[in-house]
Amino acid sequence: MGQADIIFIAGPTASGKSATALRIADALGGEIVNADAMQIYDGLRIVTARPSISDEARIPHHLYGVLTGADACSAGRWGQMAVDCIKDIRARTKPAILVGGTGLYFKTLLDGLSPIPEIPASIRDAARARWEALGAAAFREEVIAHDPAMMRLPEGDTQRLLRAWEVFEGTGKPLSTFQRAPRAPLVTDPVTKIAVLPNREALYASCDARAMQMMSSGAVEEVRELMELNLDPSLPVMKALGVPEIMSLLRGERSQSEAAELLQRNTRRFAKRQMTWLRHQMSDWPCFENAALASDAVIDN
Known about the structure:
Rossmann fold, 52% helix, alpha/beta
């Protein structure tokens, strides 16, 4: 494949994406930009399988651990930060290597954003207050009354339901109206796109191993410190893979072995959903079974 100055590396959890990015960055002198929705938060290095401190020191890494857990980061916000990072890296005449498992983030850069006006903080606060006053079920019904297209959102998708409510209140138009509007790509320069997609047996074994390593190498303490912050349970960081499972251990609801088994199962399920999404939404991306094959395909061209 031809080599561009911007490289996108996608794939499910535990597939070897980070190793691929490091190999490419080493060979090409590039810098790495996070495209994972959870690795953007500080304090969960082990839980989110963020690159090690030594790797981040050896190769410039961007957008890792830059937000607190109290800050809900949208795809649009990440997209603008990523574009700024790409411009800065390219200004240094280095390749920008974006890597992560959040396929929506890559779609945001390639397809663009819905043209939604800025919503005042007062309306965002009002949305949260309304949700708390009505309860999740009644709040969802109110959202659907204004925007029937939001019927697709389940009751538990609090963040998107809040967004739909605040957009309608702030603009007088349903969120779906903006979502149907034409979009402009945020990245228009040539991009090399690759996906690391191991066979299912190998991927699931890697998921199981990662879950066990997480449980034994400091993830429990990370989640304990997160719980002490008393954050809103609807925040994205509170739903990060590993957080609910370990919280159940810390609350005495499960034993260590039960929590580990649950984490293994949920990690495999999460990886399966990512693979399905990638195959449907990113079907034109060249796929490779491991980090070595994926990185060689970029480095050798």
